[in-house]
Structures are given as C-alpha cells and as structure tokens.
C-alpha cells in the first residue's frame, strides 16, 4: 500500500566533539550532532527531505547525498553548491525519488572531513617511537654498498628528522618531500654517491676528495659529519618540546586530523548557465 508523501525534517549541527571509540579511548572528531557515524535519516520514496545544517566547525563544509538523484543545488559538491561557511545555516530540501540505503558525507576538503581516518599513538609515545624508527631506518641502510656503523648512525639521525617531520606536519608529504629533495640534490644535481649506490649522473659530476668523515667516502655525503651536525641541530631544536609536551606541544596549535593546521578552502562555486540549471533541476 502506497503511503502519502510527507515532509521529513532533521536538524544537523556540524561540530568538533570528543568521541569515545573504545572504552577509555577518546579522540577529537568532526561530525553531525556529536555522533560518529552520523545520525540515520529515514524517509519514504516520494517524501520531501529537509535537513537544516548549522556549521559550527572552523572551516566550510557541505553534505553530499551519495547516490541520490536530486537537484544540483542540493548536491553538496564543491563548485556546484555554495559551501556552508562557519556560523552559517543551510537548508537542504529535496524529494527522495528512490527507495534504498544511501550514505551521506562532506564534499568539502575531503582529505580531512571524509577520507582521514583515526590516528592513535602507542603507549611508548612519539619520542620513543621516533628513536626506534630512526634506529631501524639506519640499520636498514647497512645492506647498502660500502656502508658502515658510522654511515648507519648518520642515516639514523636523518631518519629521526624524517619521522619528526611527519609528527610536525601530520602529513606524509613533508618527509617524502624532504627525502626526495635530499636524494635528488645529491644525485640529480651534484652527481655524487647517494647512500652507497652508484652514481646516476647529474647536472654536475663531482668527485669529493678528503677525509672519509668529511666526504662520506664511498657511501656519499649522507655519511659525513656535516650531515649529522645539520640534522642534530634540527633535533636539538625540536626534541625538548616533544619530551616536555608530547605531540600536542610539538606540533603547536595544529590539531590532529587537520591538514597541517591550514584552512584549505574548496573550489568557489561556478556560474552555471540557466539552460543547464533547468536540465539539472528536472
């Protein structure tokens, strides 16, 4: 028996809240009505669904109704629907055309608001984890040609800096960029040996002559005292903050789960021709 169509209304508040994901395990989360996952919406095919969203987050957001056929202005996609800025209220209103199970999610700054998962830290803490990962990083380079205990220690110090770069930025892009640029400058620009590997040819072709402690010998500049001092200088500058305050102190005001603390705006809405609007709204 077909039921009469009706208007189904919900009120959503997008905000940050403390979420207990397991007994005693509390994280900072972004969600609707302080729920993770968000509230379940129920309606019948043919009903008019109304969802009023109040954005109390620190950056714009939207709701994209995944798989539901609806007007483009209600779609929640950057460049199609205007973003809901902090402090604003937006009302989604559309007819639900089909029966089914659908999911909804933000379509603004998706790397933070949708794709980002749960980040937890082990009991040992970031400092111990950095030291262990640095030792493993250095030891792994012992299999490289012409490696030594000295070169492994030098590489371990570099590994500490790479790990600290991730903790600082909360993004793998920073340590990847540092590592890539470090290796590219050695082999691609100066044409010197990198981590004991053969020369690949660069913009210049240098032969470094001198003491092994200064040149790195057959292992390359990564095994030099200069490289170690450079990395130690960075470690000394950051380690006390990490020891005293943990991750929160180390990264300053950057919240875990945000892209380096930066507010990454989405695309601005584009102007859609009236003819196209009429087609999309049918």
Average residue pLDDT: 74
Radius of gyration, whole Å: 27 Å
- Order of adjacent strands in the largest pleated sheet: 2-1-3-5
**Helical stretch tally:** 7
Overall structural domain count: 2
Number of strands: 6
Helix fraction by DSSP (H/I, runs of at least 4): 25-40%
Low-confidence spans:
243-270
Order of helices and strands: EEEEEEHHHHHHH
Strand content: 15-25%
Oligomer: single chain
Report the principal-axis shape: elongated
The helix/strand class is alpha+beta
Q: Main beta sheet, described? A: 4 strands, mixed
Written overview of the protein:
- The chain is α+β, with helices and mostly antiparallel strands.
- The chain folds into two domains: 7-119, Cupredoxins -  blue copper proteins (Immunoglobulin-like), CATH 2.60.40; 125-250, no CATH class.
- The chain is built from seven helices and six strands, in the order E-E-E-E-E-E-H-H-H-H-H-H-H.
- It has helices at residues 110-113, 125-140, 149-169, 173-189, 212-215, 225-250, 274-280; strands spanning 7-22, 25-32, 48-55, 64-66, 89-95, 103-105.
- The strands form two sheets. It has a four-stranded mixed sheet, with no helix packed on it.
- Strand 1 (7-22) and strand 2 form a beta hairpin.
- Helix 2 (125-140) packs across helix 3 (149-169), helix 3 crosses helix 4 and helix 3 (149-169) packs parallel to helix 6 (225-250).
- The radius of gyration is 27 Å and the shape is elongated.
- Residues 243-270 have low confidence and may be disordered.
- Residues 19-118 form the Plastocyanin-like domain.
- The chain crosses the membrane at residues 124-143, 149-168.
- One of its GO terms (biological process) is CAAX-box protein maturation.
């Amino acid at each position: 028996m077909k039921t009469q169509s009706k208007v189904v209304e919900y009120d959503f508040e997008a905000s940050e809240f403390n979420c207990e994901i397991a007994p005693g395990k509390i994280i900072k989360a972004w969600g609707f009505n302080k729920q993770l996952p968000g509230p379940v919406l129920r309606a019948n095919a043919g009903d008019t669904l109304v969802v009023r969203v109040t954005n109390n987050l620190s950056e714009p957001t939207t709701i994209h109704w995944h798989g539901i056929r609806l007007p483009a202005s209600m779609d929640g996609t950057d460049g199609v629907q205007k973003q809901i800025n902090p402090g604003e209220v937006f009302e989604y209103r559309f007819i639900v055309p089909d029966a089914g199970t659908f999911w909804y999610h933000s379509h603004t700054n998706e790397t933070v608001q949708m794709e980002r998962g749960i980040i937890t830290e082990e009991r040992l803490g970031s400092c111990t984890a950095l030291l262990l990962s640095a030792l493993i990083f250095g030891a792994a380079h012992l299999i490289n040609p012409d490696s030594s205990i000295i070169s492994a220690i030098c590489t371990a110090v570099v590994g500490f800096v790479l790990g600290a770069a991730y903790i600082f930025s909360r993004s793998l892009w920073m340590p990847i960029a540092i590592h890539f640029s470090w290796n590219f400058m050695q082999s691609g620009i100066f044409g010197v040996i990198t981590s004991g590997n053969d020369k690949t040819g660069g913009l210049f072709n240098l032969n470094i002559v001198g003491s092994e402690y200064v040149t790195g010998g057959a292992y390359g500049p990564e095994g030099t005292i200069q490289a170690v001092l450079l990395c130690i200088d960075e470690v000394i500058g950051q380690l006390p903050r990490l020891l005293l305050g943990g991750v929160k102190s180390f990264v300053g005001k950057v919240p875990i789960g945000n892209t380096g603390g930066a507010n990454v705006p989405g695309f601005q809405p584009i102007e859609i021709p009236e003819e196209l609007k009429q087609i999309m709204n049918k």
